[in-house]
Amino acid sequence: MFRARLDEVAAQVQLHLDSIMAPLEGQIAEAMRYTCQGGKRLRAFLVMESARLHDVDPAQAIWPAAAIEMIHAYSLVHDDLPCMDDDDLRRGRPTVHVKWDEGTAVLTGDALQTLAFEALARPVCHPEAAVRADLVLTMAQAAGAQGMVLGQALDIAAETAAQPLTLDQIIALQDGKTGALIRWSAMAGPLMARADTGPLRRYAQALGLAFQIADDILDVTGDEGTAGKRLNKDAEAGKATFVSLLGLTGAQDRANDLVDEAISALAPYGSEAENLRDAARFVISRDS
After folding, report:
1. Which among 159, 156, 162 is positioned nearest to 176, based on CA atoms?
2. What's 176's domain CATH number?
C-alpha cells in the first residue's frame, strides 16, 4: 500500500511539475525540468498524506507538494556545486553544473526556489489568502537562514573546523539541513486545514533525524550504483557522522528508536495514518 501510494504521488507530482514548467523556455528551463526528474518524492508524499488526513482537496495539496520538491531540487543543485559538496553525480545522472556549467546551475537553483514560492502563492493552491501566506511564511523559515540554509552553512563550517562536531552539534546541523523541509512537508496538511500541527510536527521531527542517520549508514554500507551518487564523502573529508560517533550498530539502533518515536506521534490519527507509519519504516530500510 505504502509503495503504491509513494509511486502514485511521485507520478502526480511529476505531471504537475511538468505542467507548471511547460510555459518556460530556454536553457534554464531545460535544466529545471532535468533537475526535477526522478527521486523518491518523500517530501511530496508527506504533504499529500498530511493533507489527506485533514480532508484537504488533493487538487490544492498538489501545489505545496510540487513546491517542496522544487525547493528540495534547488538545494541539491546548489549543494552539488564545486564550492559546496562538489558532486558530479545525482540520481544516477550528471549534476547540473557538469551537464551544463556552474552559472547555469546557480540560476537553475534560483529559478526553482522562486517558482516554488509562486506555486504556494497562487489562488488555486488555497482559496484563503491567509492560508497561502502562512504556507509561504513557514516555507521561507524552513528553507532559509533558520532552517535548511543554516544547516548547510554549519555543514560547510564543519569541514574546516579544528575539532569534529559532537553528537549534539550534528543533530542541530541536520535538524536544519534535512529536518526543516521534512517538518514543513508533514505540517502542510494541517496548515491548509487550519488544524493542530503538533502531532505531525513531532512525527516529522523524529522522521527527519532517522532519515539523516539512514543517509550516514548508506554512505558507509551502500552501493554507488544503487544510490545514484558518490558515497563515503564524509569519511574521506574526516567529518564526524552519526556512524563515526555512535558506531554502525549504535546508529542503526538510534534510527530504529526514532522510527518508533515517529510512529507513536501518529496515535491521534489511528489507522488512517498507516501510510505515514510505513513511511517512517521505509526511511531506515531504503537503499538509496
Report:
1. 156
2. 1.10.600.10
Q: Is residue 23 part of a domain?
A: yes
DSSP-derived secondary structure letter, 239: -
Q: Are 192 and 241 in contact (CB under 8 A)?
A: no
| 260 and 248 Cβ atoms separated by less than 8 Å | no
Number of domains in the chain: 1
CA 170, CA 143: separation in Å to the nearest integer? 18
Q: Which helix (H) or strand (E) holds 125?
A: none
Single-letter residue type at 86: D
Which residue range is the domain that position 188 belongs to? 2-283
Would 288 be classed as within a structural domain? no
Give the pLDDT score at 231.
59
pTM for the full model? 0.94
The amino acid occupying position 9 is: V
pLDDT averaged over the chain?
A: 94
88 by DSSP, 3-state: which? coil
Does some domain include residue 204? yes
